């Protein structure tokens, strides 16, 4: 987006709003995704401009702390994605009349945690309280996962379906969804560093009822696929053992459907090529190692990432979602440099 025009959005006049609307409507798929039309566009952009003034300094500070390098890029992302999305969630919550449960599906490097943090900041300026919950927070305890691993030695990593306390997740989301609730809600938090990196539940955090719950994770909202999908599966599902593991995890995914039923909306952040997640993980680990911290080698990362591709392969479980309007409200394409690509409503 024209950065000069974006700077003018902080003190817009009629002419600037007209120009901003022209730019907005030029990307018809994104405009449709955020409900921007010729009729309502000026009013929407005036409100967005006001929000931009209110939140830009805080968003810049937050994003710089997360490693963003370019202020122009942050402001562009704020204007084109984060602000309209937060406004959309606020509108949906108002229509719903109770806590909105917004699912966010995204893998390694897609920016789901950043998205949740920025959206929560903007929602505060819209006088809406929110909480972010990760699927990781629903992991079974270390002791329970040890028992699981004894029953099924293939569960060498936490993360695949079957390693979470689904019933607890349902209970928590149901409590948030209760109209006029006054009692606090206890949300588990997970400590990834416990037990030498195997992780364990680190107690519960108490929350008063909120307006929006952002529920994020790497397979939020994914659905079991037909068994025929495993007859000629993508790499690295190669051996008969690989196929059996993938089929078993697919079966486990069935248990998560009641949890997904609690979602009011689902956003999918997906890379232009799912294999980028491996590259991004390597880059992240290399940065950690460069700062003197311990990190995985490239070979370890290959094994780690491919394990999860065998359990829920993106081509089998995420690609169908981004074309299904019944399950997904918003799809956001992530480019190889982590920038935001197309934004659209599946149809």
UniProtKB/TrEMBL annotation:
<dbReference type="InterPro" id="IPR027417">
    <property type="entry name" value="P-loop_NTPase"/>
</dbReference>
<protein>
    <recommendedName>
        <fullName>Glycerate kinase</fullName>
    </recommendedName>
</protein>
